[in-house]
Design brief:
Elements: E1 2-5, E2 9-13, E3 17-19, E4 24-27, E5 33-37, E6 40-50, E7 54-62, E8 68-77, E9 85-97, E10 104-107, E11 110-121, E12 130-134, E13 140-146, E14 149-152, E15 159-163, E16 169-175, E17 178-181, E18 188-194, E19 196-202, E20 205-208, E21 214-221, E22 223-229, E23 232-243, E24 246-247, E25 250-252, E26 255-258, E27 265-269, E28 276-278, E29 281-283, E30 288-292, E31 300-302, E32 311-313, E33 319-321
C-alpha cells in the first residue's frame, strides 16, 4: 500500500475517480483539509469508487452540490460475483458537507472489516448515510458504524445492510451515534438490517424534529442474536423496533418515545421467538407499547414501563410480568 498526507487546503478530484487495486491510506490535517468534487454539470453515478482497502482520515469531504450532479459520494464496488468482498476500509474523523445524494453506497459486493467512525455532517444529508445491498453469495461481516453525528433531510437510512443470502451477514455494530431526521423526509429508518447473525445496536440517540420524519428506529428482518441496548429514541411514527422476525436477542434499557401517531407499537414482534425484553421505557404510542403477534412465542417481557399504552401478547408461552402500565 501507499500513504498520502494531504495538507490543509482544498484538493479537487474529478467525478468518478476510481481507486484501483492499490491499498491507500489518505490522511489530512483536520477539518481544513478538504477533498472536493470539481465543478461538473453532467450527471455521474459516484464521486469516488473504492474496490480495495482504503483508510481515509482526518479531513472534510465536500460534494460541491451546487456545481455538480454527482450521485453517491463514496461507492464501494464489486462485480457482483459470488464471494466478492471489499476488505479493510476505514473512514474516520471526517466532516461531510454539500452532498447531492448518498454518502456511502455498496454495489455488487460484500464487505469485511468495514469501519465508519466519528463522521459529522456539517449540513443535512439529502439521502442515505450508509446503504449496502449485498448480492447473492456475498458476505457482510465486521461492519462498524460508531460515534457519528448525522442529520438526514430525506427518507434515507442511517445504516442499511440488506444481504441477499440467508446466513451471510454477521457481526454488525451501530454504537454511540447521534441521528437526527430533519425537514424533508417522512419514512426514515435509522437501522435497516436483514439476515444478520449477531450484532449490536447500542447507545445511539435518534431524534425526529417533526412528526412523521422518522418511521422506524430499527427495522430487523431475518435477524438473530442481536443486543439492542441503551438507545434513546424520540419521534418515530410507525415503530421504535420492528422485528420480522427477530430471534434469540435482547432488547434492554432503551428509551423509546413515539410521535403520538396512530400506527403500531414501540416494540413490535411481527414474528420471531425467544427474545428478552427488559427495563425499557416506552411511551406515547397510541396503539401499544409492546405488541407480540400470533406465532411469535417464548419471549420474556419483564420490568418495562409502558406509559399506559399497554402490552399485547397474542403469541404463546411468553413470560409477561412486572411491567408498569401506569400512564
Amino acid at each position: 500500500g501507499a500513504t498520502i498526507k494531504l495538507l490543509e487546503g482544498t484538493h479537487l478530484i474529478a467525478d468518478e475517480t476510481v481507486i484501483g487495486n492499490k491499498i491507500l491510506d489518505i490522511y489530512g490535517e483536520g477539518k481544513n483539509t478538504i477533498i472536493k468534487i470539481a465543478d461538473n454539470g453532467s450527471s455521474t453515478t459516484y464521486g469516488l469508487r473504492i474496490s480495495t482497502g482504503l483508510t481515509l482520515k482526518n479531513l472534510t469531504l465536500d460534494g460541491n452540490a451546487s456545481n455538480t450532479a454527482t450521485g453517491e459520494l463514496l461507492q464501494i464496488y464489486g462485480d457482483g460475483s459470488g464471494g466478492e468482498t471489499v476488505n479493510d476500509v476505514t473512514i474516520q474523523d471526517i466532516w461531510l458537507t454539500n452532498l447531492n445524494a448518498e454518502f456511502i453506497v455498496g454495489t455488487g459486493t460484500g464487505m469485511n472489516d468495514f469501519q465508519v467512525k466519528n463522521v459529522t455532517s456539517l449540513n443535512n444529508l439529502p439521502l442515505d448515510f450508509l446503504n449496502f445491498n449485498v448480492p447473492v453469495n456475498c458476505f457482510a461481516s465486521q461492519v462498524i458504524v460508531k460515534d457519528c453525528n448525522v442529520q438526514i433531510a430525506g427518507d434515507g437510512p442511517f445504516m442499511k445492510i440488506v444481504v441477499a443470502t440467508t446466513g451471510y451477514g454477521s457481526n454488525y455494530f451501530g454504537t454511540g451515534n447521534r441521528i437526527t431526521y430533519a425537514t424533508g423526509g417522512s419514512n426514515g429508518v435509522a437501522f435497516n438490517w436483514s439476515e444478520v447473525n449477531r450484532g449490536v445496536i447500542s447507545n445511539n440517540i435518534a431524534f425526529a424534529n417533526d412528526t412523521g420524519r422518522m418511521q422506524i428506529f430499527a427495522n430487523l428482518i431475518e435477524c438473530n442474536y442481536l443486543t439492542i441496548t441503551g438507545n434513546n429514541v424520540k419521534g418515530a411514527n410507525y415503530a421504535g423496533i420492528y422485528c420480522n422476525p427477530l430471534d434469540d436477542s435482547t432488547i434492554t434499557g432503551n428509551i423509546i418515545i413515539g410521535s403520538g401517531a396512530v400506527y403500531t407499537a414501540g416494540i413490535h414482534f411481527d414474528s420471531g421467538d425467544r427474545n428478552v425484553v427488559m427495563g425499557n421505557h416506552i411511551d406515547i404510542w397510541n396503539t401499544d407499547a409492546i405488541t407480540i403477534d400470533s406465532g411469535s412465542d417464548k419471549h420474556v417481557v419483564v420490568g418495562n414501563y409502558s406509559g399506559g399504552d399497554g402490552i399485547v401478547d397474542n403469541g404463546a408461552s411468553s413470560v409477561v410480568a412486572d411491567n408498569n402500565d401506569n400512564g
